Amino acid sequence: MNAIEPLCLRDFQQSMRAMYLEKDLARGVDGTFMWLMEEVGELAAALREGSLDDQMGEFADVIAWLTTIANIRGIDLSEALRRKYGSGCPGCRHLVCCCPDEGKP
Amino acid sequence: MNAIEPLCLRDFQQSMRAMYLEKDLARGVDGTFMWLMEEVGELAAALREGSLDDQMGEFADVIAWLTTIANIRGIDLSEALRRKYGSGCPGCRHLVCCCPDEGKP
Asked: Is the CB of A66 less than 8 angstroms away from the CB of B62?
């Protein structure tokens, strides 16, 4: 990952693959999901009472563990985001969401 | 988001900001975290018994809700990932993790 250019999600996923895939495959989806859940709990705690630095670290960890699960399944997160959100809100198809509040406030 | 170039996480976060920030701010971190948890549950279900397309959609939704929480707190996810993982594994500092298995198998 270049230190100056904006982070490309595909490059990040590739770097996670190089860093962790062997361990991820050995652990499998179920075991890796448990680690993800631990990090989600740490993110909740940081959001409640952590510093901004703590919160940044926990966001990074949650995305990292999500990425490792995607790697186990061979899913390209960049493509997944583009398919679901690349044409606007999946609910109303607008670039500024105008879904009714009663649906998802 | 350009349909051909690799997805830049900062651009994605900016598009989520344009799409949802007003609703996200009104809902706040706690309420948005509840939506994130719902999506995490749907991801778990899709990983167990969904198609690859289902799984892609749920990964996208989890990252989208994570991104909205980061937007509420003004956190740049691209910078968060770079700080935590940009120099290799945070545990052993290698680009291919060589942390001992007893720590994080």
From this structure: yes
A3 bridge partner residues: none
Please state, in angstroms and rounded to a whole number, the distance separating the CA atoms of residues A52 and B38: 25
> Whole-model pTM?
0.93
The residue with tokens 């250019």 is A5
Residue A4 DSSP code = S
A63: nearest Cα among B49, B57, B84: B84
- By C-alpha distance, the chain B residue nearest A92 is B19
B56 contact residues in A (CB cutoff 8 A):
75, 79-80, 83-84
The residue of B24, B27, B63 whose CB has the most chain A CBs within 10 angstroms, and thus the best one to mutate to test that interface, is B63
Q: Go through A64-74 and write b for each residue having 16 or more CB atoms within 10 A of its CB, e for each that does not.
A: bbbbbbbbbee
Nearest Cβ partner for B9 among A7, A66, A96: A7
Give B8's strand partners: A8
B14 touches chain A (CB under 8 A): no
Q: How many other C-beta atoms can be found within 10 angstroms of the C-beta atom of residue B84?
A: 18
Encode pLDDT of B13-52 as tens digits: 999 999 999 999 999 999 999 999 999 999 999 999 999 9
- Closest Cα partner for A70 from B28, B89, B60? B60
Reported as a single tens digit per residue, the pLDDT across B47-66 is 999 999 999 999 999 999 99
